[in-house]
Amino acid sequence: LKEENASLRSKINKLQIFSETQADKMRKLEKKLEENKIKEEKEAQDLEAMVQHVEQNLQLMTKRAVKAENSAAKLKQENAFLQVQLKNYKTENEALRSGQAANLAVVKQNADLALQNLLGVITTSRSSIRQLVSGAESLQLVADLLKSIDRISEISEDGQ
């Protein structure tokens, strides 16, 4: 009976040691799980902050694109007006050549001035159009970035 008792005590000691080992492992795993939860929460917050920043940039670029479009439309109108004005000056110039040679120098000067204005408007229009194209390319880049963020989120969700 003593031997059986000693054997049972030995088994109980072994089971207690095993139980303590398992409890330690469980505490370590719980701690690691908590650390992973905290890490994932921080990553989610960082990702959300990045998405908000990208959205703000997208709104800003959209405003710039709208402003550039409006500017381009205004410059096109001004360009059309100046072309009509140039045509009028040319017509006036032709009329002066045929009958009124005395005012020819003034008409030529007006036509040159209109031409200079027209060339300036054309140059400005080209610059605005380049800005508009650049803004559109930037918007495309932001859209591609948002698509890649969605893919990263999907991969993270699938991995868990």
From TrEMBL:
It comes from the Eukaryota. Residues 19-92 form a coiled coil. GO terms for biological process: positive regulation of cilium assembly; positive regulation of protein localization to cilium; regulation of cytokinesis. Keywords: Coiled coil. InterPro entries: ENTR1. GO terms for cellular component: centrosome; ciliary basal body; early endosome; midbody; recycling endosome. PANTHER family: ENDOSOME-ASSOCIATED TRAFFICKING REGULATOR 1, ENDOSOME-ASSOCIATED-TRAFFICKING REGULATOR 1. Belongs to the ENTR1 family. This is Endosome-associated-trafficking regulator 1.
